[in-house]
Amino acid sequence: MSQNTKATCKIGPSILSADLSQLADVCNNMMDNGADFLHLDVMDGHFVPNMTFGHPIVKCLRKHVPNAFFDMHMMVDNPQNWVEDMASSGATQYTFHYEATEDVDGCIRKIREAGMKVGMGIKPGTPVEVFDQYIEKIDMALIMTVEPGFGGQKFMGDMMPKIEYLRKKYQELDIEVDGGVSPNTIDQCANAGANMIVSGTAVVYADDPRQVMNKLRDVCNEKLSRY
Ligand SMILES: O=C(CO)[C@H](O)[C@H](O)COP(=O)(O)O
Ligand SMILES: [Fe+2]
């Protein structure tokens, strides 16, 4: 976890709901419209009942999107198996799921050794207290507000106490929220203390993605200033 800096608000579109045949164009369009990072959803058909893409696509994408922060949301079993491949393909942060590996410490160590930032996520059914023993070793905690696997699902407001728990204890921790986040639900996320805001459907399908991302950022910054 980074020290001496208060968490700042960052908006990361999830391109899960976009036209994946146009991935590079979609990513560049999001960056041109003010995205702070890109949230790339990797699914293996085992950890979640859906599939997307893996490191070969990320490697190609990196050539066309050279400067963006790639937050890899790894919805895969045994995430430790793909750390080196993702690092050499251009991933910036490797966000794995606590539930997906029996060796959380080993996975974290591998990610660090590969030179990436470490994100760890939990599904809605997992208690937030699992973060406590890893907090000094990770850069970001991801609180899922849908069951992972699909975009466009309904936001689970009952996950907010998890974010509040983390924000109260760890002021400088990056806390990411992912799933059903939109201008309608950002107040709850920001009130709870989330600062890395992932939004897929609401941004990618918007007529004006810049306006939606600005709205999310404004609400988040306003609430975060209280912490
Ligand atoms: O990880 C995910 C799903 O497992 C996606 O990042 C998430 O669902 C974003 O899409 P939306 O904002 O449409 O819910
Ligand atoms: Fe995601």
Give a structural overview.
It comes from Dimorphilus gyrociliatus. The active site is at 41 (proton acceptor), 178 (proton donor). It is a single chain. The protein is globular, with a radius of gyration of 16 Å. An eight-stranded parallel beta sheet has the order 1-8-7-6-5-4-3-2. The longest helix has 16 residues, at 209-224. The protein is α/β, with parallel strands linked by helices. Helix content is 33%, strand content 18%. It has a single domain (10-224), classed as TIM Barrel (Alpha-Beta Barrel). Strand 2 (38-43), helix 2 and strand 3 (70-75) form a beta-alpha-beta unit. Bound molecules: ribulose-5-phosphate and fe (ii) ion. Fe (ii) ion binds at residues 14, 39, 41, 73, 178, 198.
Provide a brief overview of the structure.
By secondary structure, this protein is of the alpha/beta class. It is built from eight helices and eight strands, in the order βαβαβαβαββαβαβαα. The protein has a single domain (10-224), classed as Alpha-Beta Barrel (TIM Barrel), CATH 3.20.20.70.
